[in-house]
Amino acid sequence: MLKPIAVYFEQCDSGWGVTEALIQNHLLMVVTEGIMQYTIDGRTFVLRGGDAVYVPKGSLRSASHQLDQKHEMYVAHFHYEPDSVALPLLVEGTACHANISNEAYYKQRFSLLTQQWLGKNTYYDITCHYLLLELLTLLNIEITHKADPSSNNVVLQIQEYITRHYREKIGLPDLARFVNRTPSYISSVFRAVTGQTITEYTQQIRLAAARDLLTKSHMTIGEISNHLGFCEQSYFNKVFKKATGLPPSAFIKEYRYGLASPQGM
Fold it and tell me: Which UniProt key words apply to this protein (predicted)?
C-alpha cells in the first residue's frame, strides 16, 4: 500500500531552495506555475508548469529557483512497501519526470489528495492510496508514451472502454477486438504500462463505484452487487473486504459513524 507521510501545496518565493541531502521517503511532485531547478543524483532538470517528478527514497536531491522566478507546486512524500504495487516506476526505483498531457486533471487530482490528507476523514488512508496510485500511474504512462506512443494509446483506449462498460462482463477477447490487438498483447502491454492487470484495473473501477453507491444511494448491497456486474453478492463481499478491510455492511456502518463523529465532520 502507498502511505502518504506528508502532502501539501507550496508557494515558493525568490530565495527558496532545498539543500542537497538524501531524501528519506519517496516523493511525487508537480509544478503548477513558474520555473524551478531540480537536481537528483547529479542530474539537473529545469521544471515548468505541468511537469511532474518522481524521486525514490535514498536519492540525493537539491532544488532552487530558476531565474529568480516564483513557483508553485503540489508535493507528496510517501512510503511504498515493495511488492505491494507493481507499477514499473516504483519497481525500477529510478528518478524520472515528464510533462503531464492533461495538466488540469492532474492538478485537480493532486488537490483532492491534499484535501484528503489534511482532512483525515473516514477512510482517508484508502482514498489517499488510490489517488496517489492514480497520479503515479499517469506519470508512468507519460514516461512510457515517450518510449512507445502506440502502447500508451492502446492502454488509454482500454481504460476508456472499461470506464464506460465496467458494469458489464468484460472479456479479453472483447477488449482485444476493440483495440485491434491480440489478447496476449494487450495483457502484457497493460501491465507493463500501468503495473496492474486488466482485471485488477476493472475491479478498482468497480470498487470505487461501490464505495459511492454504498454511502450515497439507498440501494441494498445485493442491488449494488448486481448493478456493478459481480456474479454473486458473496463474491462482491469478498472482493470489497480484501480491498478495504471491511465487508460492505461494516463499511456502511463505519461511514455513518464517521459522519456522526467530530472526526468525520
Answer: DNA-binding, Transcription, Transcription regulation
Is the domain covering 2-122 a CATH 1.20.1250.20 domain?
no
Distance CA 228, CA 207 (A): 9
**How confident is the prediction along the chain (265 residues), in pLDDT tens digits per residue?**
899 999 999 998 877 889 999 999 999 999 999 888 899 999 998 999 999 999 999 999 999 877 667 889 999 999 998 776 778 888 888 899 999 988 888 999 999 999 999 998 888 899 999 899 999 998 988 887 765 667 878 888 999 899 899 999 899 999 999 998 989 889 988 888 888 899 989 988 999 899 889 988 889 999 999 999 888 899 999 999 988 888 999 988 877 665 433 333 2
Kind of pairing between the strands at 17-22 and 51-55:
unpaired
Whether the CB-CB separation of 139 and 52 falls below 8 Å is answered with yes
Is 157 exposed, middle or buried (CB count within 10 Å of its CB: 0-12, 13-18, 19+)?
A: middle
Rounded Cα gap, residues 150 and 83, in angstroms: 27
Which residues on adjacent β-strands are paired with residue 22? 60
Q: How far apart (Å, rounded) are the C-alpha atoms in residues 256 and 197?
A: 33
97 vs 91: CA distance, rounded Å: 16
pTM: 0.60
Return d(Cα 257, Cα 160) in angstroms, integer: 35
149-264 is classed in which CATH architecture?
A: Orthogonal Bundle (1.10)
With beta carbons less than 8 A apart as the criterion, state whether 87 and 195 touch. Answer: yes
